[in-house]
Amino acid sequence: MNPITDSTTIPMLLRDVVSYVHDENTTFLFHKVKDTWAEVSYKQVLDTADAISSYFLEMGIQKGDRLGLIIENSVDWVYYDQALQQIGGINVSIYPTLSENEIEYILKDSEVKTLLVGNPFLFKKILKIANSCPDLQRIIPAFDDYEKHISTSDINAGVISFTNLIAEGEKCISRYKEEINSLRRAILSSDIASLIYTSGTTGTPKGVMLTHSNFVQNVKVCLDQIPVIDETDTFLSFLPLSHVFERTATYHVCCAVGSKIAFAQSLELLAKNMAEVKPSVMSCVPRLLERIHDKAMKTGTSAGGTKAKIFLWAIEAGKKHREVKESGRTPGIFLSLQQNLAEKLVFRKIKEKTGGRLKFMISGGAALPKNVGEFFGNLGIKILEGFGLTETSPVMSVTEYHRQVYGTVGRVIPGIEVAIQDVESKEMISVQTHETFDESYECPEGEVIVRGHCVMKGYWKKPQETAGVIDKDGWFHTGDVGRFFKGNLQITDRIKNMLVNAYGKNIYPTPVENTYLKSPKIEQIFLIGDKREYVTAIITPSKETLQETFNLKEDFFNQKEQFIEDRKIIDWLDEDIKKYSTELAKFERLKSFLVKRTPFSIEEGEITPTMKAKRKFIEKKYAGEIDEMYLQETES
């Protein structure tokens, strides 16, 4: 067992695994090289990290310096991170999808000294802004033919390929080995390990200072709450390591317990990679699970006749079996036989597409629609939900492995306090800890606040903004609205998202949007209605479903008009809008909607890298179309 104490730091995790769990020649990482999954051992990771650390020390990098990465999940990401962490460097990971202006801001604000760059496209982007970043000393392409992409030699920073950097570092390891060991031992758990810049749905991104203790203690208590993760597991990693969720829930967890990590090639190849790797655990976002749900339902019912009846019967049998088990009872012989038959006829085929070995999936980043969680439960695939923010390392609560309450984000993790505070009066409604858990406890909703080991050190160089979210009593104010339901935390929405209609009715968009997202016809929905008499929305249809239904060519989606005005498509969507509106209060129901031709995107500045809508930006960008929609509805 890998011992994690209050003084354990990130670089100690992997070395402790080699000391207590695995031989150094055991495989730690998998990545696709051409058509083969190549294996990387713990020894390769640690030796390569030592070489990179030696190069950093040779160029004068010191403890506390910020070292950047703008690269997709990869073995190189791990090498670089392990190298900088063990000499006291601070990891500044940047989302590859950010604009040049946003990347430049982060590099300048954090004063990054070295930057690992993942591919030629990103390299060209960095070259355009490099000379505006005075602290940048080295640009490190993670590919060898970078020279052909440099059109001018007028670059202030030095450029060296990652391959050559490692080779140069290997030459001087003997000179720096003892210093590396000394620096690693000198790292305190309270030292900053990473700056992760928030998505910035409003205003300028802020660098969240997360310490070694923030990460390591978050991992420790999550493993306490999900004790089934061990050294035999294989995680498939596809969510960005530049985001705190994947960093903690996959990378650091695997570093702590000795599980293997396989890096997916891309989101497009994820299904193929799942079948090849056969992961036992995966971190994911709700939208992926919704897509799997929609595809399974479509595949299972589209043929009609007997096949569709068998599929729907199996889902119902799985539901009954799940509900009996979740109530604490043992399923009877007849129900068990039905479950076994459903498994053989339907469930096994769906599970095979995930590789057939999944223990569970961890869903985070947004609320998982209750019906989607129940669907996977019916299949016998466990989905654990968690909740937190970048500022909370990130996990504040997570589903217990043996106790599922769909529509909630689990039990408060050990060692912290989570409270519900009245949004207006600021009075405490409830304060809960791991120890006070009561599976029958419920309370009214309010703002979710937290204090304890998961809370960040603060925002980088922004003391006023830090004081604005961490009060004098140490409570971090999440800005999320929630309550406790059956002892578990349940999130309603963001305070800033709340719409107040012209009649003073409060409307939280997320639950309403999730209701409409049950429709397989809808890919994205953005609710509108603040200070308006009624609610409307901008809807992006599912491209695949739209193409199949109306036999559309790719040219249709490349037209310059932002919105689709084809009456047949609007009426087709309206069928499901009317269907799901019956589940909502009258003031929450859509009275009209616009149909967007292409999805909201990060590149257009409409959503954040964590897929949260930038509400003010979207409303301002499409203000003309929105006003016209309300005007037409009024005139009609």
From TrEMBL:
Record keyword Nucleotide-binding present: yes
A UniProt-annotated Pfam family: AMP-binding
Stated name of the protein: Long-chain acyl-CoA synthetase
SUPFAM superfamilies, alphabetized: Acetyl-CoA synthetase-like
A single GO cellular-component term on record: membrane
Keyword tags: ATP-binding, Nucleotide-binding
A GO MF term: ATP binding
AMP-dependent synthetase/ligase domain boundaries: 31-460
